[in-house]
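The instructor's notes for this session suggest beginning with a concrete chain rather than abstract definitions. Hand out the sequence below and ask the class to guess, before any prediction is shown, which regions might be ordered.
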Amino acid sequence: APEVDPLGWVGAHASRIKGYWVDREHAVEMAAIGEADEVKGVEAGSLDALFGELAERWLSSEADLRYYGGLRFGPWHARDESWRPFGAYRFILPQFELVRQGGADTKLACHVVLRPGRAPVPELLEQLAGMRFPVSFTPLALPPPLGRRDEPDLSHWQSAVRQALQAIAERRVEKVVLARRACFQFPVPVDAFSLLRRIQQDA
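After discussion, reveal the predicted structure:
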């Protein structure tokens, strides 16, 4: 699929499941639509099960499969409900995957997982027939934000930093990863892929 803009490609389709990733050097760029397979766990510490399931899938295919996802660092934190559906880890194999590496042409892959009682090929062929391959992507205009909220707020953040520094000084831990969430409010819904392209342009 030469001359295709991966971000424009994934933004042009109405799939409920979409993904986009690019490395820091912009040497590898990936866009994904749909979900052909999923590996998910709800219990922390079950990484052996995760790697075992992924290894089985890699051995059963001659293709160079990529599963995309992540896992949580530690126990579930009850104050953050938004991550509860994610579980301990979740990795998916995209239904359609567009990959550009270095200066090579962009390549499209369609992953088909065959299961008893399910014939996915006709539906996939129909999706391919209607698929668009834009060569460029002009982002939509972004409205100015109405406000911003940081979670945790400044005082709680400073308290967490002090606790982390004290724990390191007392050698109770070697490393602490702290994170904040910045929530912006807009008057209308914001197109995620337009926002990504704006970030790329401003970087």
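Then share the key points. The first helix runs from residue 6 to 11. The mean pLDDT is 87.
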